[in-house]
Automatic annotation (TrEMBL):
Gene3D superfamilies: Glycosidases (3.20.20.80). This is DUF4832 domain-containing protein. It comes from Paenibacillus motobuensis. It comes from the Bacteria. Residues 276-434 form the DUF4832 domain.
């Protein structure tokens, strides 16, 4: 008995920089198309000052991005006890969506001075901060039970409103210290630490959480409650003489590699994102003579998914280095081989086999559906598979499955296509590192004939 032919396609790999959800550079207190910060300065913690937008999403002297990062102090959201100014976050989410971005968010409890203090109503309740907490960067004594009650209560309200929002990329698990960076978290009692961390892990079950890399007890407890990622806010500091307290100490050589091990966060990247932030700005790296390729390679070793350059210009001569970085940062999915039958019948099945390679350094942490599409002159049918692409770690993955053809599918020739979609819109989301992408985001695999009489197919492998 003759068998129906199995077709095999091996899409070509491309080396283009791809702008994909949840990875790459991000804008900071800004959005795609906005002017960058001038010189070597930046702003953070305050409400966004929105710029006039002319419709051009390009970022001059800065890569295009899929993420906008918003960091704001608690005082601006809860100006009155129990009354929340969600409009500040809603507007940022809507603007990000309009600029083809999602929003990464940190609510910092306070900064480092009176202008960056906790909400006025809470300061009035507490009185002046004790002097003994100046050292670890606390504007309030976190052991005061009202801190976990009120700041923790605010975070729970935040989760009730925004957990799972399709435009919310991730939320920083920020509990104490100036700018929410976790300074002094090692000083917390177990009761306080767990109450503050629980406020996040109880409230954000769908939106990824990213913890500041701080200490073993805090990071370890966070990991015990949820799949949390990690972040640090001084990537690039590689030599001494940059800090007043030491001539030979640096984050890159004396803190991050060691603390990543001590905190137990080395394997966290497999389940949740690593998001890193520039120390000062990238131009400062160049002015200091720091090795950009060393910094890039260290971040890739730590499985970076996204990077905050603080919306400051990237030195022109470093663009090739940055493009190399972008082609490894986060996930980079390539379809290596796809096998499928040449013919199918209405009410029958289309069995297929696929080999994928993740050329990046991290998985995709959100469950974007993988779909097939049969596109013909009379009918187009989309088939959502049960692939879980968040399991596709760097390296090779196989996904073999079957989709069923509707019994009323019109006979004829169809173009078989593939795409990874947004879960909420079922529109193409992720660009593959392959040729064959059409203007609507689907990738062509070949042709399938829908006909009535079929022989048994060859083995799909």
């Amino acid at each position: 008995m003759s068998t129906c032919k199995v077709l095999v396609t091996r899409p070509k790999i491309i080396d283009d920089v791809l702008i994909n959800p949840g990875i790459g550079f991000m804008t900071f207190q800004r959005f795609n198309g906005d002017n960058l910060n001038e010189g070597k300065g930046w702003t953070e913690g305050f409400p966004i000052v929105y710029q006039d937008f002319d419709g051009n999403l390009e970022n001059e002297n800065h890569p295009m991005t899929s993420i906008a990062y918003f960091r704001i102090y608690w005082k601006y959201i809860e100006q009155e006890k129990g009354s929340y100014n969600w409009e500040l976050i809603d507007k940022a989410l809507a603007t990000a969506r309009a600029r083809k971005q999602t929003l990464m968010l940190r609510i910092a409890p306070y900064g480092a001075n009176d202008e960056e203090d906790v909400p006025a109503w809470y300061r009035e309740l507490l009185g002046k901060p004790p002097e003994k907490f100046d050292g670890p960067g606390w504007m309030v004594d976190a052991e005061d039970p009202t801190y976990a009650e009120y700041f923790g209560g605010f975070i729970r309200a935040l989760g009730r409103r925004y957990d799972g929002h399709p435009d919310m990329e991730s939320v920083d698990l920020s509990i104490v210290g100036s700018w929410g960076e976790g300074i002094g978290s090692n000083l917390l009692t177990r009761t306080t630490r767990e109450a503050l961390v629980d406020a996040y892990t109880d409230s954000f079950k769908e939106t990824p959480l990213v913890m500041l890399l701080t200490d073993k007890k805090t990071n370890g407890y966070g990991l015990s409650q949820a799949d949390v990622g990690w972040r640090v806010d001084c990537l690039g500091d590689v030599c001494g003489k940059a800090w007043e307290f030491s001539d030979d100490w640096s984050h890159m050589n004396d803190y991050y590699p060691q603390q990543l091990i001590r905190s137990g966060m080395q394997e966290a990247w497999k389940k949740a994102p690593v998001s890193l932030e520039v120390c000062w700005v990238v131009q400062h790296w160049k002015d200091m003579g720091w090795d950009i390729d060393y910094i890039i390679d260290q971040s890739l070793k730590w499985h970076i998914s996204s990077f905050n350059a603080k919306s400051s210009p990237i030195p022109k001569e470093w663009e090739p280095n940055v493009n190399r970085w972008l082609n490894k940062m986060g996930y980079r999915l390539a379809l290596r081989k796809f096998s499928f039958p040449e013919t199918v019948k209405p009410g029958g099945k289309l069995a297929f086999a696929s080999w994928w390679e993740n050329l990046g350094v991290a998985p995709c942490y959100k469950k974007f559906p993988l779909a097939l599409r049969l596109k013909g002159d009379q009918s187009t049918q989309v088939f959502i598979t049960d692939a879980n692409i968040s399991d596709w770690l760097p390296g090779d993955s196989l996904f073999d499955s079957t989709v069923w053809i509707p019994a009323d599918m019109p006979l004829g020739n169809y173009q078989l296509e593939i795409a990874i979609l947004y879960g909420h819109t079922h529109q193409p989301a992720i660009q593959l590192a392959n040729t064959g992408r059409q203007p609507d985001g689907w990738y062509v695999l070949g042709n399938v004939e829908v006909q009535l009489e079929l022989e048994s197919p060859d083995v799909i492998e």
